[in-house]
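User: tokens in, sequence out, please.
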């Protein structure tokens, strides 16, 4: 939220139902927040309290709120003549409510194609007051609404690491709501795809494109300038890449490829049929550039065994942890892969893998076949360098064994070698 200075933030679900105090006395529980719906970042104008007694809601202007402390809202009469009775009212007509109107509504793009559901709302305390900063469409955030905030945040953090994005949708990308919430259509309308698309990171645009059908996807993609389109094309999944390239045609695809580094271009073209990639490369005039891309494409198709090493740490299954620790320094001295111990049977078949941390935590009398991981992610001897790079990107291992159909360990490929060779510029 670059347009606002953030002092602290929290989610709507974390404060709903909390006690509200007036001059130190509990008066009910927070039921909703009203906002100025027409603003870019809607400021909170009122707190809506469900009172402990009586049928009327208490709609208290935000200027009376002293703050959210100790897990509860505290309000105070800044006007000596102010009383709670003046804030009591039946119904909530005329108010734009975060819980009543926004929570659980759909977020749609400019052509009314559904994208996500608002599961929570991130509130941000700025020097000018409390505002709605982001819509939260992450499904894990539902857990926060049933009191499992720690689990929701943990799952969302995992998703952030995996997807390289926070998953929140800034309110500046939402079209201003009508002040007349009686005519609220029950959905939030995104304006980003129409007017603010240039301000979104290519990773986020790629995520949006992957959610759309082919016609919608092409419509959005064609609105991007050439550089943003090129960056976005690199970020989308291979299946979507192929669909977009097929839809825009070879001439535009060649222009997008020219805006990429040779390694990026090879990465995209490797997902196409060889003839299709050749047709696109033929339209690129710079011969030295196409030579680099073709060289990378050839390297990506080389057999992974060409890059496998044979100097790795291995022990028999019955070897004890004490023996491994005693011999490890000598065995690992000339090894290139030292983070994992490969547990190999006398006939050369891979029984499992134990990482060094597991060995350090194990009891000295334990055998390797007692602490190893038996279900090992492996590369097949027929795999290409490109396929190996994809597996390393997915699983994040530092090394991966090459094992044939009989279970025979043929070698080990290092992550740094696979990724460097697959993506380097030559």
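Assistant: Sequence out:
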């Amino acid at each position: 939220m670059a347009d606002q200075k953030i002092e602290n933030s929290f989610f709507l679900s974390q404060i709903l139902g909390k006690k509200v105090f007036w001059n130190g006395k509990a008066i009910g529980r927070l039921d909703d927040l009203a906002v100025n719906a027409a603003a870019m970042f809607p400021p909170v104008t009122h707190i809506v309290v469900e009172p402990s007694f009586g049928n009327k809601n208490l709609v208290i202007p935000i200027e009376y709120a002293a703050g959210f402390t100790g897990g509860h809202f505290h309000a105070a009469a800044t006007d000596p003549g102010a009383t709670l009775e003046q804030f009591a009212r039946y119904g909530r007509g005329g108010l734009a409510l975060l819980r009543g109107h926004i929570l659980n509504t759909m977020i749609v793009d400019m052509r009314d194609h559904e994208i996500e559901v608002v599961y929570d709302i991130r509130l941000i305390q700025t020097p000018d007051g409390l505002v709605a900063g982001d819509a939260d469409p992450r499904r894990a955030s539902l857990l926060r609404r049933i009191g499992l905030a720690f689990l929701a945040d943990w799952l969302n953090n995992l998703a952030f690491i995996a997807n390289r994005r926070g998953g929140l949708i800034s309110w500046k990308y939402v079209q201003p709501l009508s002040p007349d919430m009686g005519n609220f259509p029950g959905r939030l309308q995104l304006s980003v795809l129409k007017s603010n698309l240039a301000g979104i990171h290519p990773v986020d645009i790629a995520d949006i494109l992957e959610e759309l059908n082919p016609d919608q996807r092409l419509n959005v993609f064609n609105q991007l300038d050439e550089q943003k389109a090129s960056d976005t094309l690199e970020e989308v999944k291979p299946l979507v890449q192929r669909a977009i390239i097929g839809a825009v045609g070879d001439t535009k695809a060649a222009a997008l490829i020219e805006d990429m580094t040779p390694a990026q271009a090879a990465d995209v073209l490797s997902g196409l049929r060889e003839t299709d990639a050749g047709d696109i490369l033929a339209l690129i005039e710079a011969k030295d550039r196409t030579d680099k891309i073709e060289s990378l494409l050839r390297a990506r198709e080389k057999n992974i065994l060409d890059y496998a090493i044979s100097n790795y740490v291995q022990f028999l299954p019955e070897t004890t942890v004490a023996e491994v620790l005693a011999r490890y320094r000598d065995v690992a001295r000339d090894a290139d892969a030292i983070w994992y111990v490969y547990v190999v049977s006398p006939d050369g078949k891979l029984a499992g893998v134990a990482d060094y941390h597991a060995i350090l935590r194990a009891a000295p009398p334990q055998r390797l076949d007692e602490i190893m991981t038996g279900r090992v992610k492996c590369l097949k001897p027929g795999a290409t360098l490109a396929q190996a790079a994809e597996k390393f990107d997915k699983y994040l291992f530092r090394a991966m064994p090459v094992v044939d159909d009989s279970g025979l360990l043929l070698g080990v490929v290092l992550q740094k070698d696979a990724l460097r060779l697959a993506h380097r510029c030559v």
